[in-house]
Specification:
Helix content is 34%, strand content 19%. It is an alpha/beta fold and 533 residues long.
Length: 533
């Protein structure tokens, strides 16, 4: 009953019992995995799982593909074989799912826990198995973020794309520019739903640099790479509120309190470019990820069209229009990141006006951007909103607590294929790094609500990026029925299949109607206007 489904699963007769006398022995290369395993299994076995003779758990190095593992269990013990730390870690994660659900509690009354005898061979389908978490719209305290990292790791996801800045908040301490958090991390109130109703309640928070170092290290021990996003040149009103000289108006702004696409964007002065290069230098020092996202999405060009300075810049550079001006801005940051040994990640809008060399495209507006970028030789992360945006409502009906009109069911997420159909069998398919689901938090204002929106759909998504492409919805739902008690043991307040529980509803929160038709029209218009790289 494993999620995500292993490549090969062979049940065998017999079992192995874990108790306080069980030992755990590991090759030196897997010392960190052994320490993590003792921390997770020790409290429920009431033992220390120290190295020793006799039946126990053994973590052993073998020649294998990255992240692959082999798990063998019989009456004599448990053997996890892998070629790298990630594979050993995933082998132990699978071992945990073979235990009763009570093994996921911090402590249990059981004196022994039985493992069924099995032989499992497993490896991931894609190398990038991610989740975007938006902490800019609603801040997530550090302890809650660490808990979410554990839940990602349980499902063998390995990339946390952390959306740290937006119009509604700046969540990362930048020591050179302290007003980014002194001013930009706080807003006076927040919009409830989509119809302009405000809550009148201040909101804010940010991560110190020491917090970030802890988060990155915690994630790394769980085989998760944290990819930071500093969104620009749009989605930047919080930064402009902190430093008005970054904007186009020359007048003070407040951190945004409503949702949607704000018209306030960065100006294109050299001083603004240098400002964000300095910001990115501190980001690079905090995040060892080879990838840094600068967003690049939903940048409204109205202020640039009205700005004499922006128009002069277009003329000086011989650019065709404001789309090419944005491309020039993106290229400046791509070059800066490249000089520091990092690769730029941007949403598919960075295709507009020309794509920077070496840039990675996160394709969210259907599969069009993914196909265009991959066939041009650029690496791609697929994350089409209509398939993997987990902030969309999970069913129709007035009882759903999410004011989004678009419905994305558990079955819809499970049906998703990270490889676009247009690239199947195409040589360009090698540029699909993988996929990520997205949790945007305009309407997710608590950890309890995040649980409800993420689960169990995140489990379905995890299977799409790890397991072989063949689909078996009935089989998945059968395994999910065994998986949900694990989530319950962990305290995850997931959405029940029969619908939200009374305290999970949000009566009176204004929503907006189904917007699929309008969205498809927007996609079609963008596809017609895009200039192929």
């Amino acid at each position: 009953m494993i999620i995500p489904k292993p490549v090969r699963f062979e049940p065998r007769p017999d079992r192995f019992v874990l108790d306080r006398h069980t030992s755990l022995t590991a090759d030196p290369a897997f010392g960190e995995v052994a320490a993590w395993s003792r921390g997770e299994l020790g409290p429920v076995t009431r033992g220390e799982l120290l190295p020793g003779p006799g039946p126990g758990i053994t973590l052993s190095v073998r020649e294998m593909r990255p992240e692959a593992y082999r798990l063998s269990i019989d009456a004599e013990g448990v053997l996890v074989e892998a070629g790298d730390t990630a594979g050993a870690f995933y082998g132990v994660q699978t071992l945990r799912q073979l235990l009763p659900a009570e093994a996921f509690r911090k402590a249990t009354a059981s004196r022994e826990l039985a493992l069924p005898a099995v032989r499992i061979e497993d490896r991931p389908r894609f190398g990038w198995r991610g989740c975007l978490l938006d902490v800019a719209r609603h801040f997530m305290p550090k302890a809650d973020l660490l808990r979410f990292i554990d839940l990602m790791a349980m499902h063998k996801l390995n990339v946390l794309h952390l959306h740290l800045t937006d119009d509604q908040g700046w969540r990362l301490e930048i020591r050179r520019y302290p007003r980014l958090t002194e001013v930009g991390a706080w807003r006076t109130e927040s919009q409830i739903g989509w119809n302009g109703v405000m809550d009148g309640r201040p909101h804010g928070g940010y991560y110190t640099q020491d917090d970030i170092r802890e988060i990155v290290a915690y994630a790394a021990l769980r085989q998760i790479m944290v990819v930071p996003e500093i969104d620009l040149p749009g989605h930047a009103q919080a930064a402009i509120a902190a430093y008005p000289e970054l904007g186009n108006l020359g007048t003070p702004l407040q951190v945004a309190t409503t949702w949607g696409i704000c018209e306030n964007v960065l100006n294109v002065e050299d001083s603004t470019i240098r400002f964000f290069q300095n910001v990115l230098d501190e980001v690079i020092d905090l995040f060892p990820s080879p990838y840094i996202s600068i967003g690049g999405d939903e940048c409204r060009k109205d202020q640039w069209r009205a700005s004499p300075a922006a128009q002069r810049r277009i003329a000086e550079l011989g650019l065709r229009d404001e789309d090419e001006l944005q491309s020039w801005v993106i290229r400046r940051f791509a070059g800066h990141l490249s000089s520091r040994g990092r690769r730029l990640v941007g949403w598919d809008e960075i295709l507009e006006g020309g794509l920077p060399a070496g840039a990675v495209v996160a394709s969210w507006r259907d599969d069009h951007g993914a196909v265009i970028a991959a066939r041009a030789g650029h690496d791609v992360i697929t994350c089409p909103n209509m398939s993997v945006y987990l902030d969309y409502r999970q069913a129709p009906g007035e009882e759903e607590p999410t004011p989004f009109g678009t419905v994305l069911t558990l079955d819809d997420v499970y049906a998703f294929d990270p490889l676009p159909a247009a690239l199947a069998g195409d040589q360009a398919a090698r540029h699909i790094l993988g996929s990520q689901c997205c949790l945007w938090t305009e309407l997710i204002d608590s950890t309890r609500h995040l649980d409800y929106m993420a689960f169990p759909r995140l489990a379905a998504f995890a299977e799409t990026v790890w397991s072989p492409p063949e689909k078996d919805l009935a089989g998945f739902r059968h395994r999910l029925a065994a998986h949900l008690p694990r989530l319950t043991a962990l305290g995850v307040e997931y959405r029940p299949d029969e619908g939200p529980l009374p305290w999970q509803r949000r009566p009176g929160v204004p929503g907006r109607p189904e917007d699929t038709t309008e969205w498809r029209a927007t996609i079609s218009e963008w596809t017609r206007n895009i200039r192929r790289p």
